[in-house]
Amino acid sequence: MPRSALFVIDIQRELAQDPKTRIPHAERVCSAGEKILSVARGIIDTYRSSEQQSPSTIVVVQHEERPEDGTLVRDTEPWRLVFEPRDGVREEVLVAKTTRNTFETIPDLADKLKADGITEVITFGIQSECCVVETSKGALDAGFKVTILQGAHSTYDTESKSAVDIERAVEEELEGRGAEVIPWEDAVASWEQRCMISSYSIFSEL
C-alpha cells in the first residue's frame, strides 16, 4: 500500500507563538495545523486500533541553530515546538535539522521513508520561502510525489512582498517543478472521506 509522510515544518514558538517574533499569519498556520494533525492522527489511530499499518506517518521537523547563528538554540524557549509528536506512536517521528532542506541535513531520510513504503511527502509549516520550499524540493529531488498544503504555510512580510505574495510565489515554483498545491481544507476532507471508506473495509473484516 503506497503511504504518505506529513511533514510539519518548523512550527516553533519563536516563529509561531511569541508576539514579538512570530510571523504575521501564525494564528492561521497554527489553526490549520491543529485541524490537519487532528485528522491525520485520527486516521493513524483507526489503523492502530485494528493492528494494521497506517497509510500515513507524521514527521515533525525542528530547526536548530548555534548561538552565534540564531535564536533557535536547542533546549531554549524559542526552539520549542508548538506541535510535538505523541509519545509511543511509531507513526509520529521527530527529526532535527540545521539546514533549510530536511533531506540535506539527514542524507539517509529519503531511503528510510522509502523503506517504510512512503511514496508521497505532504508539507506545511514555516517559513514558506525557506524551509518549507527547500524541504519540498528536497523531497521532489529524492523522487517523492510532493503536495504542499495551501493556507497552512506562511512567512514574514518583506519590504517588497507580503507574506501572502511569498506563499503564492512558493506554490507556483513548486507547481512548476511537479508538486501539487491543494488547499489544506480540501486535503483534510479527502483524507476523512478515504478513512471512512477504509475503516468500513477494515472493520468489516474483523
Automatic annotation (TrEMBL):
One of its GO terms (molecular function) is hydrolase activity. It comes from the Eukaryota. Residues 4-185 form the Isochorismatase-like domain. Gene3D superfamilies: Isochorismatase-like (3.40.50.850). Transmembrane segments: none annotated. Keywords: Hydrolase. Belongs to the isochorismatase family. This is Streptothricin hydrolase.
